[in-house]
Amino acid sequence: MTGAPVHGDAPGNSAGPGRGDDPGRGIAAVSFFDGERIRDGRLVRRDGGAPRLDPAPAPPGAPRADGVVLGLPTDHHVHLELVDAAALEGSRLGHVVDLGADPERIRTLAAGRRVSYAGAFLTPPGGYPSDRAWAPAGSVREIADAEEATAAVAEMAAAGASAIKIAANSTAGPVFDDGLLHTIVRLAHAAGLPAIVHAEGPGQAMRTVDAGADVLAHAPFSERLTDEEIAVHATRIAWISTLAIHEGEARRIALGNVRRFHAAGGSVRYGTDMGNGDTPVDLSAREIDALREAGIEGTALLRALAPADPLAPDAALLLAPEGDPARARPLTPADIA
After folding, report:
1. In a domain, 21, yes or no
2. pLDDT digits (tens, 9 = 90+) for 77-134
3. Which tens digits make up the pLDDT trace of 255-311?
4. Judging by DSSP bridges, how do beta strands 38-45 and 238-240 pair with one another?
5. How far apart are CA 160 and CA 238, in angstroms?
6. For 253-267, b where at least 16 C-beta lie within 10 A, e where not — what string?
7. DSSP symbols for 243-303
8. Which terminus of the chain, N or C, has less C-beta within 10 A?
9. Beta 140-142 vs 164-169: how paired, if at all?
């Protein structure tokens, strides 16, 4: 969405129409994303001059902000133990979901921040990522049977987890058999928590769906799903994108799977696997570009970002030039000067 830019030398400092000679002073017309669609509204001054969003129409003749206003987005896949979590405070992210950390450590990191977390990876003895040097101490729970699974899910729930993270990576070690995988998913649901699975290796994505899991932590990148499998996934599970971490064949496979999954009506959530390589503690233009490459554009792209409600009291607001979230910047008083 585009329009005439708002000029910083507009006279007046009124908070709305009806105060002063010019009903447009201190107000700018704007398009905004309400979580589902783009609507028209207006920007007005808060006390102190910061912009806030109002869904009412702007008065005739008001200048127009050049872009789409949205709340701060969500990154659905991060690892805060592997980055400088304090950098979130100055970022354009409003909420992040940590998918693999020591439960006590992540509870401390999450305090005072808009952070949800799954706690530790649940994996079989010797399973991924128990042998990875990057996996912090305490970030993996090795589960041998239903009794240990029950204890682990209860531990994560007690630590404040909002989901349960399960590893099913057959390329890097053993995976749970069908019985135990189904049991862990059932335990997660009984605790009121979604089951999020890292599925990697032939057949693991379909095993995840068959077990009743709710989310794939990564769009499938180690195998091309058939159209029939894509159709099943599109009706039964959401995918977190994490496209930009891949190169070569894995990237090609992931992009193709996401393109067909989205076309089939599947739900794709923006996520970067923050901490995996050179990933910013912020919105990732590379991930947004990869989502576009997979055919997710416009309002579908904004939905994948799951931004906070821009109409909420004291909501922090971004202005995305031409609706491009990769270029989004915080709104400032100059936008309605």
Report:
1. no
2. 999 999 999 999 999 999 999 999 999 999 999 999 999 999 999 999 999 999 999 9
3. 999 999 999 999 999 999 999 999 999 999 999 999 999 999 999 999 999 999 999
4. unpaired
5. 22
6. bbbbbbebbbeeebb
7. GGG--HHHHHHHHHHHHHHHHTT--EE----BTSSS--SS--HHHHHHHHHTT--HHHHHH
8. N
9. unpaired
* Tokens read off for 274: 């923050």
Strand pairing category for 215-216 and 27-33: unpaired
Report the distance separating Cα 211 and Cα 153, nearest Å: 16
The token pair that represents 176 in the structure block: 């749970």
Whether residues 45 and 166 share a domain: the answer is no
> Which pTM was predicted?
0.91
Nearest Cα residue to 23 out of 69, 59, 65, 68: 59
Sign of the CA dihedral with 192 first, then 197, 202, and 206 last:
positive
Residue 150 token pair: 């029950």
Residues 167, 274: one domain? yes
**Separation of CA 147 from chain center:** 33
Note whether 128 and 276 are same-domain residues.
yes
* Nearest C-alpha neighbor of 160 from the set 86, 220, 108: 108
The 95-98 sheet, strands edge to edge: 74-78, 95-98, 115-117
Same domain, 33 and 169: no
Closest C-alpha to 214, from 267, 264, 176: 267
Tokens of 131: 């042998």
φ/ψ of residue 204, rounded to 5: -70, -35
Comparing CA positions, the residue from 4, 66, 3, 54 lying closest to residue 26 is: 54
58-72 burial: b if 16+ Cβ within 10 Å, else e? bbeebbbbbbbbbbb
Separation between Cα atoms, residue 38 and residue 33, nearest integer Å: 4
* 273, 244 contact by CB (below 8 A): no
Same domain membership, residue 322 and residue 247: no
The contacts of residue 245 (CB under 8 Å, 6+ apart) are 272, 273, 276, 277, 279
